[in-house]
Amino acid sequence: MRTKFTLFTILALLMIGVLPNFAQDLDYTVLADGLNNPRGLNFDDNGVLYVAEAGLGGETEIEGPFGPAMYGNTARISAVVDGEASVVIDYLPSMNMGGEIVGAMDVVPTADSLWVVMGHEMKGVTLAGTVVSYDRISLRPQMIFDPFGYEHQYDPDGTGELLSNPTSIALAPDGMSALIVDASGNTLYRASFDGALDVVKAWEGNPVPTAVAYNEDGSQYAVSFLTGFPFLSGAARIEVYDSASDELVMTYEGLSLLTDVIFDDGGVLLAVVYGEFNPQAGGWQADSGGVVAITPDGVIPVLTGLNFPYSIAKNPVDGSYVVSVNAVSAEGEGAIITFSAPN
């Protein structure tokens, strides 16, 4: 992604009766802390939460996509059980590009595997810019897809700017394929588990797609967008597609720089916004991010005042929600918060 920071504008509720379960202040608690730049979140069927931690970069200077960067094997995948985080996969590549940290960006568990999305390409680091399936028991790689290699060979969005930063993966409910978002490549791929990687959609104009998610029955999928510089308020969107045809079904516009999206009950979309950018006040503002709920009839704030949130997931066991916060922060300051929607 050309930038991971987002601009958050609190959107007015267009129809006050659309989402009564969210139309009030919600309390949240800290589920786990001590994390290093937590990004993507997903639960397994037993309610174990897996977290992709982008890491801290490192002490080795390498050539980054926008100049010198500091590299180290500090990214990791952690699992949270009973509020305690433990490392599952360690020593993954991480890069600090002047304060923007990229590394492990998303993780999706299945009964047999852990799918891990490794963000931005890193010069000389072969694992960066790939999506890897690890055996859940042995933690050995089973399958690798290479959006970085595809971008550099084919340039799907046709910009001539060969940048790759895969950030999100969604597994199809039929278990036969997955959708992968490359934010810097402005491309959505379909990875078939026979090894093929094909372009589903490549967007012009650098809208920076950030996340992809299927609905419960797999009939639709949604893609959220960050938008690029100059981070104009209201310029972001969510696109919803028919899974069978890959045709666009609905576009929700007027949003502001989203980093994640999921389908909730009744077709409601929940999206994460990172924070507010105010150049007059020095740039990105702390404690200005949040979560919004989106329907065809309106948009409502769910949580506000969050510090640089990034991803959201719903626990299949108890129906609670989790959000990663402090997604760009100092060592050990990352956390996962949890909340439940009122009845």
* Gap between N and C termini: 37 Å
Portion in beta strands: over 45%
Poorly predicted runs of 5 or more residues: 1-20
Helix content: under 10%
- Secondary-structure element order, as H and E? EEEEEEEEEEEHEEEEEEEEEEEEEEEEE
Structural class: mainly beta
Number of strands: 28
Number of helices: 1
Structure in words:
The chain is an all-beta fold. 2% of the residues lie in helices and 51% in strands. It has one helix and 28 strands. It has one helix at 147-154, and strands spanning 29-35, 38-43, 49-53, 60-64, 67-81, 84-97, 100-102, 104-109, 113-118, 131-135, 141-145, 166-171, 177-182, 187-192, 197-202, 209-214, 220-225, 236-242, 248-255, 258-263, 269-273, 276-278, 283-285, 289-295, 298-306, 312-314, 321-325, 334-339. Strand 2 and strand 3 form a beta hairpin. It starts with 28 loop residues before the first strand and ends with a strand. The model is unreliable at 1-20 (pLDDT under 50).
Quick summary:
By secondary structure, this protein is mainly beta. It is 2% helix and 51% strand. Strands 2, 3, 4, 5, 6 and 7 form a six-stranded antiparallel sheet that branches. Strands 1-28-27-26 form a four-stranded antiparallel sheet, with no helix packed on it. It has a four-stranded antiparallel sheet with strand order 8-9-10-11, with no helix packed on it.
